[in-house]
Amino acid sequence: MDDILDEMTSAQDLKKFEREYNITLLNGNLDPKVQFQYAWCLVRSKYSSDIYKGILLLKNLLDTSSMERRDCMYYLAIGHARIKEYNKALEYINLFSTTEPGNTQIEHLESLIRNKLREKRDRNGSLIAIAGITSLISIFLMKK
User: Fold this and answer.
1) Which domains are present in the chain?
2) CA 94 to chain centre
3) Biological process GO terms, please (predicted)?
4) Is the pTM of this model over 0.90?
């Protein structure tokens, strides 16, 4: 299975679903399915502002509609992971897992997110170590 966190929506799909979303919104009859499809495209965008907007639309659906609940949690996890909010993504993974324990798709996503979180921690740890060594060298050189 490819890395779902790297999948991007096409500009054509984004425009298509944005148009459909805006039409139903202007008509005052917003269809949850249309909102989900637009949010789905947004969280898979290459732009973080789109991802944030998609997250808001998915959260709204999760709070107001029983439709697409499972998929909303899944794509909320993906959206948060794509903007590097890994702990928030894992919260949605855990919420999803309580409703469908043993789901292999969600287990795979959890593994990807945990790997990203581990990479981030390793990178941050390396930066802290480098900063510490640099400080020690500076102090040593200042004393000479």
Assistant:
1) 4-143 (1.25.40.10)
2) 14
3) autophagy of mitochondrion; mitochondrial fission; mitochondrial fragmentation involved in apoptotic process; peroxisome fission
4) no
